[in-house]
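Protein modeling request. Please complete all fields; requests missing the sequence field cannot be processed.
Requester role: graduate student
Desired output: 3D structure, token encoding
Chains: 1
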Amino acid sequence: MEFFFQNIFHINEITNGPASSAGTAWKKGRIMLAFIQKANNLIWGLPLLIILMGTHLYFTCKLRMPQRKILYAIRLSLGMEDTGDNHNLSPFSALATTLAATLGTGNIIGVSTAVALGGAGAVFWCWITGILGMATAYAECYLSVLFRSRGKDGAYVGGPMYVLKNGLHNKSLGSFYALCTLIAAFGAGCATQANSATQAASFSFHLSPHIVGILLAVVTGTVILGGVKAIGSLCERIVPAISFIYLFGCFLLLCLYYRQLPEACLLIVRDAFSFSSVAGGFIGSTIQMSLRYGIARGLFTNEAGIGTSAIAAAASDVSDPKHQAYVSMTAVFWDTVVMCLVTGIVIVANMLYDPASIQGIPSTGLTSAAFAHLPYVGDAFLTVSLIAFAVTTLIGWSYFGEKATEYLVGNKGIPYYKLLYILMIYLGAIIPMNLVWECTDLINGFMALPNILALFCLRRYVKS
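Delivered output (464 residues):
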């Protein structure tokens, strides 16, 4: 499992090329990778993290803490019935589609790297990012429902690109966001997820990447070719089930670590405010390191501020923007406030329970080290969970890319997009992913900037 995690989440160096003419292409690839890595360090450095956290804080205050209505929002998401609209999603289907795209490897392994690099306190700051990010998600989804459009077939279309177009009256900036979303769909939503699932299946079950790629393409293709209702229907059945199974595995581990739980929780809080180096992480950490990695992982996993969840929210058949905004806000709650927190506590408790299990492993292996103690199933449980989450992410992101395609070229381009997406699933399962991961991070940064601009320019329209 350590080898599998290292291949998925570490941006390894490009494999040494041959001494032949291919060496030139290899050198160009290394130069491009180095350039994109520097660009990512610049974009995803302290300024953007401050902007995103500042956005979270601003809307938390402006909307008078919509987070305090989380129980109402959860009841709303479960209680709103499907109106029978064949062209649009029910509120719960919209929520499930969002969770399908955001829940996954980031929740499981992203927390691992945060703890390894930022110490146990990173779990606390990741959790805080989720709590505050709920307000930004509320604002994004509110504006997307408010400024969405309706096609000739009666289907709603929306998202940040339509907010930029209909709200800010800037079609070019909307096209830029849609293009970034389309690229991200092929990258983060398709190729990287297919590769993650393939690495897991190949390492744990010794399956050929080609076979896994074909199976993933067939399963995902069957769903996405069925249209928006098929996607929503599958997501609302599968996403809660696999999330419950994963959380059940976490709670079994917490029962095993029950003696370490009080100390683990205390360590997480204490390290979050520690100004001196502590032994909570692989390299020791301070409050600066905890903040940096905790906030960054929280932002990456719930995507609040990037705006993708608003694309699914706009397809809801609910007419009141406020209702759908509350429902969609719960996606950040489940994704970061619950899933990331539980994973983080499991990791820190295992570090106290069996310190030897984390010696000599990569930063992405902390989750694997914890699940190795799960009776009978161990690593296989985590592998199956990762594969299942990767499949749902493939399905959820296919919808985001479809809406971006519709914005750019209209309905006529959707069949070609779907076929290319299915093909990319297979290619993603068999090609190296180092450059793709870096490009994906870069595109996500480009998506955040116009989305945040729209949020602040149109903030007067958002009501709680």
